[in-house]
Amino acid sequence: MSIERRPSWLERKLLLSPIKAYLKHKYQIELERNDTAKLKPPYIILANHTNKWDPLFINCFVEDPICFVADAPLFRNPLLKRVLDYTGAIPKATAKNETGTIRNMLTAKKHNRVIGIFPEGNCCWDGTTKDIAYATAKLVKLLNIPVVIGHVKGGYLSHPRWADHDRKGKITVSLEKKWDEGELQAMSVEAVHQGITAALAYNEIAWQAEQRVAFQGQGLANYLERALFVCPSCKTVGKLHSEGRQFSCTACGYSVIYNELGYFEPKHKPMHFQFVHQWNAWQLQYTKTNLHEQQLYKAWRQALADEVKLYVSSSEESPFMQLSTGKLTWHRSYLLYKPHHDAEPLKLPIERLEGINVHLNSKLDFYMDNNMLRFDFFHPRSSAYMWYQVIRHSNLQQEAKLQ
Questions:
Q1: Is residue 253 a contact partner of residue 242, using CB atoms and an 8 Å limit?
Q2: How far apart (Å, rounded) are the C-alpha atoms in residues 382 and 389?
Q3: Which of 94, 160, 259, 378 is most buried as measured by Cβ atoms within 10 A of its Cβ?
Q4: Judging by beta carbons within 10 Å of its beta carbon (0-12, 13-18, 19+), is residue 83 exposed, middle or buried?
Q5: What would the mean pLDDT of 212-224 be, rounded to a whole number?
Q6: What is the pLDDT of residue 205?
Q7: How far apart are CA 61 and CA 363, in angstroms?
Q8: What share of the chain is helix, strand, coil (3-state, %, to 5)?
Q9: Percent of the chain residues past pLDDT 70, beyond the cut
Q10: What is the four-CA torsion angle of 254, 255, 261, 262, rounded to 10 degrees?
Q11: How does strand 371-377 pair with strand 363-368?
């Protein structure tokens, strides 16, 4: 099986049946709507991304194995690459728009395959849909095949991206045919983009307000500091700490409880936010506004200093090779990596970093000079997400100065 060959009925059963059985045993998965039941390939599924298992949750209810577009770094693992190639996954680099990705999608269309895309690019950190890649609208118009909008609901609360363990609750899947073949051709790319953005808009907490499902597990707040890194009470960066269900600031003592509904409860009033997505939205605005304030520079520098392992890959196909271990620090216009041995420090100008991305929840990836670098954080509570946001805003600040 590959992009070029649509699997037979027997192959589909052999591949998908055990996956369905496993997921339905592990999670309480329900089908809300399935317009693909009477839809013949080729067509494309655009879905929100709340959980690392979203591709499998969706494929549980789609007859054909889906050719999902997957980040190129996944293909650098030799064993995983064989699995992805077999299922017809389509590699997409995060640093650039590859014509190869488009060619593979056109090939999938030609061979009557189902194509799957998560236009957000990565799993969300707080249960809400993030910015939709503008290129998705251009691609949908180019393919000119039916478009199905997929929603996975409960996936975030079942296993938040920042957490290490699953929670037992409920997941529902909806697959709604939004546009038929030819329906988008008369629309502008901007209109298509707005339509896709509106169709994929989702807030897990709004869904939870109606469902009131308890997501049970141990240590529900553990590792929440991977996602939330600014205290709303004292505005200190990098001093938040999780333990069990409690999430506290070690600088000022502000503390909340994270409950089974995914809500915060007050431990010491006042409580600034009830939900993770509210806290995250506030801290991102705070970062944007205060990152380059001179009086806060030392505080950001202290927070952005982590022990890491450095990996490098020199081509799209080559696996990552570990070069060394060391310390990574932020310096406004550049990152500085100091190896633990006596090698020369590596200065990484932020303006030269491309395709910045967080892989899983603890690996910071980017391209520089045609090499892909990966910094894997030693400490499980380090926030690669904070690094990503700071680098992104540092880059935006430099671009603004050049204008």
A1: no
A2: 14
A3: 160
A4: exposed
A5: 98
A6: 97
A7: 31
A8: 35, 25, 40
A9: 96
A10: 60
A11: antiparallel
Residue at 273: amino acid letter: F
Q: Is the confidence at residue 397, as pLDDT, over 90? A: no
> Cis peptide before 18, with omega less than 30 degrees from 0?
no
- Segment 18-31, tens digit of pLDDT: 878 888 788 889 99
Length, in residues, of the chain? 403
Q: What distance in Å separates the CA atoms of residue 23 and residue 1, rounded to the nearest whole number?
A: 23
Does residue 60 sit in the same domain as residue 201? yes
Task: Annotate 51-75 with DSSP letters as a single string.
Answer: STTHHHHHHTT-SSPPEEEEEGGGG
Q: Which of 251, 269, 290 is the last residue of a domain?
A: 290
pLDDT at position 94? 55
pTM > 0.90: yes
Per-residue pLDDT reduced to its tens digit, 60-86: 999 888 999 988 777 777 777 777 777
Q: Do 282 and 186 share a structural domain?
A: no
228 vs 9: CA distance, rounded Å: 46
Q: Which residue type, as a one-letter code, is found at position 388?
A: Y
The whole domain housing 385 covers: 295-402
Instruction: Let me know if residue 254 belongs to a domain.
Output: yes
